[in-house]
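Weekly puzzle thread! Below is a chain. First person to post its structure in token form gets bragging rights.
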Amino acid sequence: MKIIAIGLLVAAIGGVAVFSGPAPAAGQKSVVIVYGSRYGSTAQTAEWIAEGMAGKAALVAAGNPGDISGYEHVILGSGIYGDMLHADMAAFLEKRGSEVRSKLLALFVVCGAPPDYADRYLEKFAAQCGAKPQFARAFGGWMKKELLSPEDFKGLEGYYKSVNQPYENYDRTDKAKCLAFGKEILEKMDAEK
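Winning reply:
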């Protein structure tokens, strides 16, 4: 008798669930951060921004973003190489820019240029998106010569020689600034609810 009662209870609950429509997936995220990173500093920056958003943002690489149509907001991030966006981000915008334009919440770039100089990259990025985001920020990156491709190593070596600067590794990433940017975005989203 107990087994039949439990079976009827499970069937009744299951029936209610079927008729009430699908429940949102547990922990479903409404924001996706799509990033293009060549040597890892943009990927690291994206992770810290997501952490600042209290885990409310999913992370995907621009080279293989999958289906992002279910996200309400999109944050785009790109490393800067030779005054241009990362190749994967440029290809993503070419192919899927119209899909994310109305969802664009924020942009960020990661580069070796000083933040004042990097603002022009943010403007260029926004122009390529065809939309002005609510938030835009430039962050410092890193250069680790041991990670560079032979072509990049040689090109940067020549650049530093031409500007009479030492060709040395550096790390200008700043976790605190990335976390603060993520928190700023999250606070604005929460205020708009």
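Puzzle host: Confirmed. Bonus trivia for everyone else. The longest helix spans residues 2-19.
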